[in-house]
What we know:
Layout: H1 25-40, H2 47-50, E1 54-59, E2 64-70, H3 84-103, E3 108-119, E4 128-138, E5 142-151, E6 154-167
Antiparallel strand pairs: 1-2, 2-4, 3-6, 4-5, 5-6
Helix pairs in contact: 1-3
Amino acid sequence: MKNGAEDTGDAAVDNEETIMTKPTKEELKKSITSFVEDHHNAPYGYIEHIIRRDYLDCDPEAGWVDYTFTIPPEAANIIGTVHGGYIAAISDETMGITATGFMNDEDAAVTTLDYQLNTIKAMHVGDKIRMRCSVEHIGSRTVLAHAVMYRGDEITAMATENFAHLSKSKIKFVDFKTMK
């Protein structure tokens, strides 16, 4: 995790690196696999049933987590390749899971501030994709993450996301069953 922000004097720039303990490989693996399982078993929304990824490996010191997923038939667009919205959704959620895992704080949460996706090669139904997510910065107000997707050794897409750094204890969660 790197602090790439510079002191510009601009109050909107998050110059403060949040002081926290880096998770060990086992702590990070436990946190990530718990998040992935929670998302797979979510009682809300159709999208949770097609956005499925599995934890593969991690390196807390280098700041990355690898995931793997297979493109499902529901992700195809009208020309037979994977819909960009599917790639955006799975990378958004997976970067959020990774960012939260690296925050190593039970009260930590994130929500997207901005997101950019660059598709490099078309992906197709049945492709097995490896996604490496890295956390570049964890500050007191923002978290910056990056994802690179591979089919074999070939890069298929890259995404960058800036999150707001939140506390679960200060968030009012919606019950998706009742929408209250």
